[in-house]
Specification:
The protein is mostly helical and 67 residues long. Helices cover 85% and strands 0% of the residues. It contains 2 helices and no strands. Helix 1 runs antiparallel to helix 2. The two termini are 20 Å apart.
């Protein structure tokens, strides 16, 4: 279960990277279209940080219960 959570964290980073790439390529063409990709990038990075912190707490709680 924890390994699955670790992989999903990096999926959020992949979505953020793709969104940042789309922002860079579309900014000069149509800046209005990039706003949705800015939103996706910000939310994806926030979700990455949230999921990582949640997983670390889960692992720490599991480790503390085993001792």
């Amino acid at each position: 279960m924890i390994k699955f959570l670790r992989y999903t964290e990096y999926l959020y980073l992949a979505v953020a990277a793709i969104s940042i790439y789309k922002i860079a390529t579309l900014w000069s063409v149509d800046p209005k279209e990039t706003y949705i990709f800015i939103f996706f990038a910000v939310v994806s990075i926030a979700m990455f940080l949230f999921r990582r912190k949640y997983r670390q707490r889960f692992e720490q709680r599991k480790k503390d219960n085993q001792q």
